[in-house]
Each structure stands twice: as C-alpha cells, then as structure tokens.
Amino acid sequence: MIMNRLESILEHNRKFVENREYETYMTDRFPDKKMVVVTCMDTRLTELLPRAMNLRNGDAKIIKNAGGIVTQPFGNIMRSILIALYELKATEVFIVGHHECGMTGLNPDVVLEHMRERGIADSTIEMLTNAGFQLDRWLTGFDNVRDSVEKSVRIVSRHPLLPPGTYVHGLIVHPVTGKLDLVVDGYTGQAV
C-alpha cells in the first residue's frame, strides 16, 4: 500500500515523538536574539536563511509570506511584528527579501488565469471585482526587490505603534549562496 503525503507525515511524526527527537529543538517562546525576521516563503530559504544569519532554533521570530513584504500598516504581518516586539521581547526587525523572487514582476492576469485553470469560476472573480475588491492590486508583485525591501522598512519604521528606538533593518539574501546585502541600516536609518 502506498501512503499519501498526510499519512507519511503522521508516520514520521509518530517516530519523531517516540524517539524524542524534539529534545534537540527545545526552547521557549521568547527569541534569544530578540529579533523579528520578515522574509519570503521561498523554499530555498527554509534552512539557508537562518544559517546565513547565524540563527538557531529559538533565536528569532520568523514571519514568512510571498515576497517577504509588508504591504499594509495594519495587516497581519505588521500585527505579528508588533506582537513580537511588545509581547515576546523582540527589540529589532529585519526585513529580508531575496534575489530571484517569484513576486518580482508577478502579473495578476496570469495568476487569475491560473485560478481559472484550477477551478475558480469567472463568476466568483467577477463578484469580487464588482464588490470593489481590487484583485489586480492584491495579486501584483513588485518590480525591484531592493525597492520592495526599502518600502517594507519604511512602513514598519514609520508605524505609529512601533516602540520608540526599535531598529528596522533591510537586507537581500541570495537564494543560492546565502550572501546578505545590506539595503537599510536600521541603526543609522540610512539606505546603503
């Protein structure tokens, strides 16, 4: 019998717990390095970025989304940053974009076509559009990763609820080598 993906995960998890492999990862909910990292969900960064930044389990709160971007000052990403700063003892924010990001040049028309191919009815898309939801804006990526990082740093650093004295840095990581390029030095507030 062939196991499906869920069964495979649950079987692995049973052994993981039974063999007490979790003990290697034990920590508490407070980031040891008092950092919040906002980055992309790109699979190439899953292990590479923490290693490139010298982060181990428990060192930082890592928030991931498509593009590693903060688009709304009162959206979920910003709320998560604020919770990490106020409730989880983080003191610095790192916005980390990456080269070769899939959000670069993302075309909303192509995304909508892929939605249709996967079974979303035109009537659903029309209903959302007629209700005033701007799908094209919502599904648009960015043209330049550096500009995207700078914009996200601006949104976070100028937020009215950001604790005074919070450093907000901007970096770009190479998804193959892990090389970090500084974009915004949060200590000086200057783009590099």
Automatic annotation (TrEMBL):
<keyword id="KW-0479">Metal-binding</keyword>
<dbReference type="GO" id="GO:0004089">
    <property type="term" value="F:carbonate dehydratase activity"/>
</dbReference>
<dbReference type="InterPro" id="IPR001765">
    <property type="entry name" value="Carbonic_anhydrase"/>
</dbReference>
<dbReference type="InterPro" id="IPR036874">
    <property type="entry name" value="Carbonic_anhydrase_sf"/>
</dbReference>
<comment type="similarity">
    <text>Belongs to the beta-class carbonic anhydrase family.</text>
</comment>
<keyword id="KW-0862">Zinc</keyword>
<keyword id="KW-0456">Lyase</keyword>
<dbReference type="Pfam" id="PF00484">
    <property type="entry name" value="Pro_CA"/>
</dbReference>
<protein>
    <recommendedName>
        <fullName>carbonic anhydrase</fullName>
        <ecNumber>4.2.1.1</ecNumber>
    </recommendedName>
</protein>
